[in-house]
Amino acid sequence: MVLWILVFTLLFKTSFAQTLDGQWQSSSGAGIGIQTTQQGVTITVTPVSGQTERWYGRWLRKWDQFTYVAYGNETVVAQVMDKNRIEAQSSKGNRWTWSRLGAQPDPRTSYEYATRLQGRWFSTSGTTIDLTLQNGKIYVATVDTKGNRYNGEGRWLDTTSFRYGIQGYPDEWVGTFLSDGRIKVIATRANSKVTYWTKQR
Asked: Structure pTM?
């Protein structure tokens, strides 16, 4: 019995190691590449703007918790939550969620969220957002609290998340569907500001 538990634990940890390798999307908008070895982890970060950087980390617990030091001696601790999600927190108080990219989305799930996405949404910032989909692209039309109108477009990151930009703004935003039907939107540059969208009934 003890031997069986040890074998199961090793297989479980090995499967985590295999699933970590690959490309991830941070809630900050940055692209994250992960490569693992028995000795540690290599993290390649491609920010929204700026040059790609590579960091070398070590295991805190194989294969589901590791740490590395990034810009300005900012220590990051990353915890694997499941095969598609990692929660990262830095010594400066920053928090990010990394979502796995590259998995083939379920067409039924994609279609469901695409259908739910279209329509009018109201942001906690006071902005009204109209979303339409055409040929795989997401078109965004917004009206802020002062009546100013802006247009932009975006693309799907996975079955439940998308990224978009607004014409004339250097920032971009990442939106993710929540279980309660709202959309959580994180700015990729403006201190990761978070707003929530509710769909018009």
From this structure: 0.51
